[in-house]
Amino acid sequence: MNIEGKPHRTIWLGDDGATVEIIDQTRLPHEFAVVSLRTMEDAARAIKTMQVRGAPLIGVTAAYGLALSLRQDASDEALDRAIEHLSAQRPTAINLRWALEEVRAALRNLPREKRLAAAYRRAAEIAEEDVEACRQIGAHGLGIIREIASRKRGGEPVNILTHCNAGWLACVDWGTATSPIYQAHDADIPVHVWVDETRPRNQGAALTAFELGGHGVPHTIVVDNAGGHLMQRGEVDLCIVGADRVTANADVANKIGTYLKALAAHDNGVPFYVALPHSTVDWKLADGFKIPIEQRSEDEVLKMPGRLKDGRVVTVEIAAPGSPAGNPAFDVTPARLVTGLITERGVAPASREGLLALYPERGIKKN
To answer: Which residues have a catalytic role annotated?
Structure first.
């Protein structure tokens, strides 16, 4: 996607064909910086500290991290250790483990001397597959936006509410929830995006707004608790969010606060869609409340970074001194509150049957 008119992806191989380059998302929106990953530990740290974030991008970064690990040791034992270490960095997003298992499968039965090249090759394929999946998600979601636009009075935009960042910064390109928005904008369909700030890390205010602005999409940042108010006033036509994990019965784990948006949408008759690629579906889990929910540092709640007038970026305390904080990173939205799933294969009801209609080749087992 575009930043000041220049196309960018979130992750790519460096000129040496070995180093992995990423956009350091912890420094956005105040600074655009590229960081080089040269070891598996670099990749693990980037995932843990959220230099890269978003389920699809985490998966691609982990795949490249596994390739980086093979530069030191390509044995079976080292491969197993690297997979376990990388998968432990962010436990909620299923794409992380999925991508690592994809690379493991590509290396199975290969001699050690061929594993490194095969790992880089599969990681690059996963990245390209993600780009195409997100493009297809956008093509299918575009139909939803186009239908709503056809019912609007001439020139009125389709108002779409998002939560967190499920844009191209969360993927390799296009994004999941934002892909239909970008494709509608590029097709000259008037759209306007209500961007939830998304406390405590403010991925909406910092990242979604950054990328929408870079692509020229009209948008407005709102506090997280404004969504219900906007829906009551008829100022939201639909909600589109991403997902970190979707169970076999279509329960959705996404950034904390998503459940509240789904409740407000349900109460006000606003369509609530979840956009995701197949790699986000956990086919082995049928109960959303069994999804492990990452508990992050209380500092994310008690402190906030910002830029001063002189350009310096500082972190300040924003809470009462001495008060503790809880910080669950995700919540679970039951399938009954989801209007539909937008995937690379089409749009389907949020149900076990809906998922099987899209992916009939997958057997779903209940846990």
So the answer is: 244
